[in-house]
Write a structure and sequence with these properties.
By secondary structure, the chain is of the alpha+beta class. Helix content is 32%, strand content 27%.
Length: 380
Amino acid sequence: MNNYRAILCTLIFLKFLINASISSAETSIYKKIDLFGEVLEKINKEYVDEIDQSKSMDSAINGLLQSLDPYSAYMSPEIFNEMQTETSGEFGGLGIEVSMEAGVVKVISPIDDTPASRVGIKAGDYIVKIDDIQVQGKSLSEAVDLMRGPVGSSINLTIRRVGQKKALTFDVVREIIEIRSVKAELLKKNVGYIRLTSFNENSGDQIRKQIKKFEKNGNINAYILDLRNNPGGLLSQAIKITDFFLDNGEIVSTKSRKASENRKWFAKKGDLIEGKTLIVLINYGSASASEIVAGALKDHKRAVILGENSYGKGSVQSIIPLKNSGAIRLTVAKYYLPSGKSISEVGVSPDIEIDEESDEFRIKTETDNQLNYALKLLNG
């Protein structure tokens, strides 16, 4: 009861702050605050079961944030602490980047060489059940908590996939997830292949090193930059990596509610591969920073974009700490490509559309028909 009394006292105090000069819009907001307090009191007195008041308030806060867009969310102190641990590069889990859509968890992309990618979970899959627990009605943070567990333990996911009538089930064993963002390889003796799986603090430096190694090989005449199933990351790294392949021109701009925070970034002179042919591979799992790179290179006609339409996450989230040691993830700006187009909910369309051939499709294996097509194109 103490929590509710404190909340109601706060609401009553807010009422006393209203005076004759308050606009009708502000009056309406205070009426809604009154209503919210009344609902809380009714739930506390009348609901059939005793409720966890703290969890109810967390759900109310999270509901407010998730009503804004799929990427804004509340993080309790425990979840915020776990998130900070994850960004260090090692964490336990399944290896998927997720968001919430229509009340269920949607896979943005599986991370390369993780339990999720190995069992065949794909970008765009909807997780409807975790073990025997329905996801519908749960917040994203609650669903993520359910998927976490001791390393080596197994979890069963029930998934709905577009184009499949029956639900799919996957048994996944949790592992320590180690994120290695850059992999590089020489293909067909003359193609420099660079795969980028996320945009972290060292991604740009790693790619620069790989390009320098390739450029020492006099036979290299083309490059493939693979951004498939890359959920994004740091904007600064997306700008840096795009700049590697451009001599000039706008890379990306952000527009915010505050005009002072609207910004544009431009390329500096110096194409690291000196105008050589560049193919960028994208798919539905390419999101955010990946879309900035692919979209800017497409707009400048510097690369051929091959694969499938990207995810369409063209917004900037800021992590804002709270007094309770938790935080909120809040959308504060949107990305715009050099053409002026927004990526949000649209994504980047490929110049050459090549869909995954089958459910057995795996990136950088014999079943990778998109990479095979790119190589044929370069050697044709």
